[in-house]
Amino acid sequence: MVKVAVLGASGGVGQPLSLLLKLNPMISELALYDIKLAEGVATDLSHINTNADCVGYSTEDIGEALKGSAIVVIPAGVPRRPGITRDDLFKLNAGIVKNLVSSVAKYCPNARLLVISNPVNSLIPVAVETLKRCGVFQAGNVMGVTTLDLVRAETFLAEYLNEHDVKAMGGPIGERTYDKSKMYKFVGVVGGHSGETIVPLVFNHMMSHTLTKTGKYDEFIHRVQYGGDEVVKAKAKDGSGSATLSMALAGSKFVNEVLISVHRREEPRRRANRTSERKNVTISSTFVYLPGLSNGKEVQEKLKQIAGSECRVEYFSLPVVLEDGRVTRVDKSIFDNISQREREMIKVAIQELEKNVTKGRDFVAHKTKL
Question: Which residue intervals define the domain Lactate/malate dehydrogenase N-terminal in the entry (predicted)?
Fold first, then answer.
């Protein structure tokens, strides 16, 4: 069984995420850490009749929280609120993530590190550079959680297609209605995790044609890229809030994929004839450091070709293969059948990502003034 630590477990994302993880049968111990309320959250969750043991830890106990953790999830930090830009978020959250990652390096250096805190595009470089300085960096261990972008893409694509079918058929169409929970077959998301760095890819040409024909393609892209703004605006009536519940669900889905990969490491011993197909798990997308990963250099070359310049793309979100919870290979085939419009969006994303990554790298190098 697996110990999972949640750093920032009492926050808007941390609490619902911890609840969802408590329900996961692959977790044996859930270590909940925060600067306040963690013990109360853990006690509350411990009354749920699932087998994961829940223990809360405060600031002085972070070593105990992390010791023995196979997976560390970081939703800690300040959430987006009306008037707060992603630059503001970076200034507030970079120091928090750097300190937490330093503790991970000290107490569980081999843990798989999953960062939810925003802005992911800049905070993953902060995590990578911090681990490098601590001498424990492993490229396959560090993942930025971008799953919410895919969850939104699947949701919105189904909504637009269903709306079109209802109008075309004059009413509900029963079994032909698109199921939001099964749209992962038809859409993916690559790039980064903010604004125009988020690039939805519609794999099904008929669906893409339908969006274009109905004039909904641009609206679909914008909603996926700026879906977080919808939530911030809706919650602004009460003075605060960003995407917490949907982010918690997306985070738990990602953790589950990592857990599946961890648990499958033992299966080849029992099923020797199915080793290759059982021990690897492909997940939808995650924001990773490309150098040092299998196919990483090839992806960098593809991105340079798309950008049409001598760009230095070191980080990108794309489908990856996991083994024992670690990224072992990135999927370069994701770029093989993209449209010209999608190429243009990737080009724009690359330009913005370079700025985001530089900001994170400079922060750890003490070149950023907060």
Answer: 2-144
Tracing tokens 């004839």 back to the chain, one arrives at 273
- Confidence (pLDDT) at 268: 47
If phi > 0 it is left, if psi is from -120 to 50 it is alpha, else beta; for residue 279 that is alpha
- Please report the DSSP string for 295-360 in residue order: THHHHHHHHHHHHTS-----EEEEEEEEETTEEEEE-GGGGTT--HHHHHHHHHHHHHHHHHHHHH
66: helix, strand or coil:
helix
Residue among 21, 5, 148, 8 at smallest CA distance from 78: 8
Q: Is 366 a residue of the active site?
A: no
State the greatest distance between any 2 C-alpha atoms of the chain, in Å, as a whole number.
63
For every residue of 12-37, DSSP letters joined together read: TTHHHHHHHHHT-TTEEEEEEE-SSS
Q: pTM of the predicted model, to two decimals?
A: 0.92
Structure-model confidence comparison of residues 239 and 222, the more confident one: 222
Residue 121, H or E segment = helix 120-134
Only one residue has tokens 């709306």, namely: 163
d(CA 298, CA 306): 13
Instruction: Name beta bridge partners: 30.
Output: 4, 54
Contact in structure between 87 and 52 (CB atoms under 8 Å)? no
* Tokens 């724009």, residue located: 348
231-253 pLDDT per residue, tens: 988 988 766 778 999 999 999 99
Which pair of tokens denotes residue 320? 């990856």
Catalytic residue among 47, 164, 193, 366: 193
CA–CA separation, 249 vs 255, rounded Å? 10
Question: Which two structure tokens, joined as six digits, stand for 351?
Answer: 């330009």
